[in-house]
Amino acid sequence: MKDGFIRVAAATPDVAVADPAYNETQIIKLMKEGAARQTKLMVFPELAVTAYTCGDLFGQDALHFRAKEALKEILKASIGMDMVVFLGMPWQRGSKLYNAAVAIQNGRVLGIVPKKNIPNYSEFYELRYFEPGNEKPVMVEWEGQTFPMGTNILFSCENMPGLVIAAEICEDAWVPCTPSISHAVAGATVIVNCSASDETTGKAAYRRSLITGHSASLVCGYVYANAGEGESTQDLVFGGQNLITEDGNLLAESKRFTNETIYADLDLQRINNERRRMSTFPASEAADYVMVPFSLNIEELKLKRFIDSMPFVPDNIEERNRRCEEILTIQALGLKKRIFHTGCRDAVIGISGGLDSTLALLVAVRAFDMLEYPRDRIHAVTMPCFGTTDRTYQNACLLTEKLGAQLSEVDIKEAVMIHFRDIGHDPEIRDVTYENAQARERTQVLMDIANQLNGMVIGTGDMSELALGWATYNGDHMSMYGVNASVPKTLVRHLVQYYADICNEEELQKVLLDILDTPVSPELLPPEKGEIAQKTEDLVGPYELHDFFLYQMLRRGYRPAKIYRMAVLAFDGRYDKEIILKWLKTFYRRFFSQQFKRSCLPDGPKVGSVSVSPRGDLRMPSDAASRAWLEELDNLENR
Length: 639
Description:
The chain is of the alpha/beta class. The radius of gyration is 31 Å and the shape is elongated. The strands form 4 sheets. A 7-stranded mixed beta sheet has the order 13-12-11-10-9-8-15, with helices on one face. The chain contains 19 helices and 20 strands. Helix 6 (about 315-340) crosses helix 12 (about 490-500). About 40% of the residues lie in helices and about 15% in strands. It has helices at about 20-35, 60-80, 180-185, 205-215, 270-275, 315-340, 355-370, 390-405, 415-425, 430-455, 465-470, 490-500, 505-515, 535-540, 545-555, 560-570, 575-595, 595-600, 625-635; strands spanning about 5-10, 40-45, 85-95, 95-105, 110-115, 140, 145-150, 155, 165-170, 190-195, 220-225, 245, 250-255, 260-265, 290-295, 345-350, 380, 405-410, 455-460, 480. The chain folds into 2 domains: about 1-295, Nitrilase/N-carbamoyl-D-aminoacid amidohydrolase (4-Layer Sandwich), CATH 3.60.110.10; about 315-635, Rossmann fold.
């Protein structure tokens, strides 16, 4: 439960119809298994204590008596288990019978949530037995305990404020205005559903989509436990499709037609941070709700949750290709609009033979094709200087030729040497002045060529470089439109790879693949034996780490210690803990100190959920202090 993680389970027990004593033993067995796995919340199916398919036997006192006796045994078994359990059973109040979810913990009943929407169509005829549940809770006494009964109950963890649980039952999730909507608005972060949804062809996909969609629109965790084998097959078959979702993401799903318990670690901080970020998510209003407090032992989980080391890049190749096509289209449409609006018919790009300028050129080609402008109005300018290698130079020239753009070359060595003389800089001193003079000279050349052509300079820098400030202020930092400004470096690589895969031109593909194989470098220092001497990732750290840090910080709002913990798990076997901590500190130092570069970025299209644009996602003061973030990492280092 440290860092907001909590283990939850959806369990489908073997059941015998109308045999609560048997069902009780199966429920207790699964509860013990869950407790042994550090599960803090376990959900069982609808009417699991009796089975859902009892039919008119729900009118028998003997069944209700045995169900209550089974509940007593389940309560006894729960003593000492640090776990909240929701299980379905019939519950009579007054002269009416309710289809209910009973919440229990450590030997006591926390509350009872009745089913609100009672289906009575097609194969369902529950109104024959059950009364629709009351919203406003009433107090119920049973076996010396007093607890609320009603749909509007929130179960709130006192020592973990981010954990607020609410319940709905089966059909409640299928109606236009689900109880979970008001539950979430009232503050529930986790919705549980005790369900008995039978199987018909195609229903599983719809059910999965429904539950996943609920967790997305309500920004919550959703634990769905479904009835399975053991239910009567007189007319129906139950497949036991259990689902655990979180904010639109499917975390776990059971195999159908097999009674199974699934586990997942919900991230409550993610849920609460996302609600905080969304100005349209309403403030909690629980005036009509009864709050039931409980507490859990706070302990650190050995996380079973999958943590994606590449959050910007889909793991599935089909999804990745779809994403790449979509991003290239967004970039191209952004540039198309800007070129058309300004009346420019020429674009100017500094082409280096590296990944970023390659992507910018590919985007420009696509935009010009959309405009039906000839590609030779794209002016690719190569500007060799002290660090340019034959490999990158040749790749820049060949790429331009194969794409049909116009290539020109401006050797800037002499101009930079004159500039060194003018400012009194010794060219043997290869410091930041030596490097930045080259970057600024290149930008001046591009801007002036654009003026000659009445054209537009297309920026090549990517979001990862902007996050780290790995750009020369008013050098490669500046352009008239930055098409890569919200594309992280890890994704740049895949976009270029995707283009290589679909171009259907052997020679173009060959040069793109060689560019992909070239180390990332600004090439501002002279080569060593003809090879690149200055490798970016040796200096600022691996981009795959920095992109991971950037996503978790900006998109999720996590604290540094949590990001470190997640990175250790995500990059297990690839980077040591000490290396991750070192580069995480570097990330924070550079991110805070370099905001002034991001505060005056050129326009550029947003392509994903994270952006550093000062006009969009990141309104951050350039003089903000990083102390609170770095001290937390120092404390980790000193443990």
